Amino acid sequence: MSRYGKVAVLYGGMSSERDVSLKSGQAVLAALQARGVDAHGIDVGRDLAARLAEGYDRAFIALHGRFGEDGCVQGMLEVMGIPYTGSGVAASAVAMDKMLTKAVLRAACVPTPDFRLLEDERDLGSAAALGLPLIVKPVSEGSSIGVSKVLSLADLDQAFHKARAYGPVLAESCITGPEYTCALLGDRALPVIRLETPQSFYDYEAKYLLNTTRYHCPSGLPAGEERAMQALAQATFKALGARGWGRVDIMAAADGALYVLELNTVPGMTDHSLVPMAARAAGLSFEDLVLAILSETLGAP
Predict the structure, then answer these.
(1) 204 is annotated as an active-site residue
(2) CA-CA distance, 44 to 61, in Å (whole number)?
(3) Which of 35, 259, 285, 294 has the highest Cβ tally under 10 A?
(4) What letter would DSSP give residue 42?
């Protein structure tokens, strides 16, 4: 594995998703070391540039959220001439911003639920016009942090302020059908996963804390419908200019119509995470997956 050189696994960081990133990074680091890669973990702080200047040949980004998944670290790595995993600066920034994501998807004719930007309480009326139920979420957070499902207009103000604690707020029509996710590895779409949770929606607890969430892989979809969903995920990946790897979250409406929620450019790599699960269904171990991602390093010769 000497061809990879000295690899920095970047994890932790300064976002609200720090705890999840620590788990992802530690799992990635262990997998790389198990395969003989000269990998070293860096818990990312404001001294990151100095740490990287110690002499690294590549970086595996396992950071989630702001200052890691949003193009900031990607830009630093490019300035320093260090090849890195995943999407570039522009795609990372756009995918992290749900408003920009939706603008790009609409321009590319990729279906996504109707939405409104909520700048303050005066905009709550425009959100109500979308109808109920609603999903209210921060524009630039992941892992369902700050997200609420609104079933009554009386709860809209509380949901807005919960999300507003993390910055600008997006209200989105809630598609009340099954939820799916499709991981992408290079040009390949991995098997689709269908998510099932007793929670009101697939929230932070359902993702990381509860053992009651059910993951169906194979998804149970007919082959043609699964291929259509994979094609939609690939179209999303292409429209946003992503590369390397990622995961697209998709809702299916009662009439069978599909809607893209978002693209995750640095998905979780924990024991509850979905990309490793899809990879296993495709015959890839966790170590195989991590090496495949590293092999797609942006900027490597």
Answers:
(1) no
(2) 10
(3) 294
(4) E
Comparing C-alpha atoms, which of 62, 12, 5, 69 is closest to residue 39? 5
DSSP E strands in the chain: the ranges are: 6-11, 38-43, 58-61, 115-118, 134-138, 148-150, 169-173, 179-185, 188-189, 193-196, 214-216, 245-252, 258-264
**pTM score:** 0.91
Long-range contacts of 42-51 (CB under 8 A, 24+ apart): 42/8, 42/9, 42/10, 42/11, 43/11, 43/12, 43/13, 44/10, 44/11, 44/12, 44/13, 44/14, 44/68, 44/73, 45/12, 45/13, 45/14, 46/14, 48/10, 48/73, 48/76, 49/76, 49/80, 51/8
Q: Classify 291 as helix, strand or coil.
A: helix
Is 211 labeled as catalytic in the residue annotation? Answer: no
| Residue 264: active-site member | yes
What pLDDT digit, counting tens, does each position of 180-218 carry? Answer: 999 999 999 999 999 987 665 555 555 555 566 789 999
Per the annotation, the verdict on 249 as an active-site residue is yes
The pair of three-digit structure tokens given for residue 72, joined into one six-digit string:
């900031």
- Looking at the predicted structure, is the pLDDT value of residue 11 above 60? yes
Output DSSP code: residue 272: T
| CA gap 96, 141 in Å, rounded | 7
Buried/exposed code over 24-63 (b: 16+ C-beta within 10 A; e: otherwise): bbbbbbbbbbebebebebbebeeebeeebeeebebbbbbb
Indicate which residue of 66, 116, 243, 247 is catalytic: 247
Task: Point out the catalytic residue in the list 97, 141, 203, 249.
Answer: 249
Catalytic residue among 208, 243, 259, 273: 208
Q: How far apart (Å, rounded) are the C-alpha atoms in residues 204 and 261?
A: 16
